[in-house]
């Protein structure tokens, strides 16, 4: 599986700011979006382009345009919404396919309570966004859902990933690509990433 830990200085600097205790909602939210934009830049390096003939200011010109297959961004509720503005800054025409999952108390498996995918999923590159790749339970269920809808090219963008989650997603879906600003040390007994960011959803939305 392709796993890219994006070590760009701007990303590392911004992620460092996000790790501070007592960070404000405003600052965390802004930084989540900015790091998401930088991850998007990295994750879209392989988009194919085609030549287009245009009238330039000084005469006819050949320029590049992104080819055929378009992107759909897939924020996982709730925290994934925090990365959406940054991704849309770079891909403003992208369709957004929102998914929401919660754990079934009986089976402990994530089940979808919300799924609103855009059309022609089989022609699109899906870019899942979620700040934390922890146990990967939600991610695996989301990829299952996207594949069932016909999606064949799937990328996941995360602010922080845990080694345990990366192992699980690699075993379940080795064909997807992961872009993360950091691969941290481990999960704690509550499923939180250490050193991590704490509860990313609470920090983005200002809840507790
Ligand atoms: N979700 C979070 O918000 N933080 C973690 O560390 C793990 C899952």
TrEMBL record:
Obligatory cofactor(s): Mg(2+)
One annotated GO molecular function: uracil phosphoribosyltransferase activity
Swiss-Prot/TrEMBL catalytic activity: UMP + diphosphate = 5-phospho-alpha-D-ribose 1-diphosphate + uracil
Summary of activators and inhibitors of this protein: Allosterically activated by GTP.
Cofactor: binding details: Binds 1 Mg(2+) ion per subunit. The magnesium is bound as Mg-PRPP.
Signal peptide annotation: none
Superkingdom to which the source organism belongs: Bacteria
Binding site for uracil: 193, 198-200
Protein keywords: Allosteric enzyme, Glycosyltransferase, GTP-binding, Magnesium, Nucleotide-binding, Transferase
UniProt xrefs under CDD domains: PRTases_typeI
Record-listed 5-phospho-alpha-D-ribose 1-diphosphate binding positions: 78, 103, 130-138, 199
UniProt name for this protein: Uracil phosphoribosyltransferase
Species of provenance: Rhodanobacter lycopersici
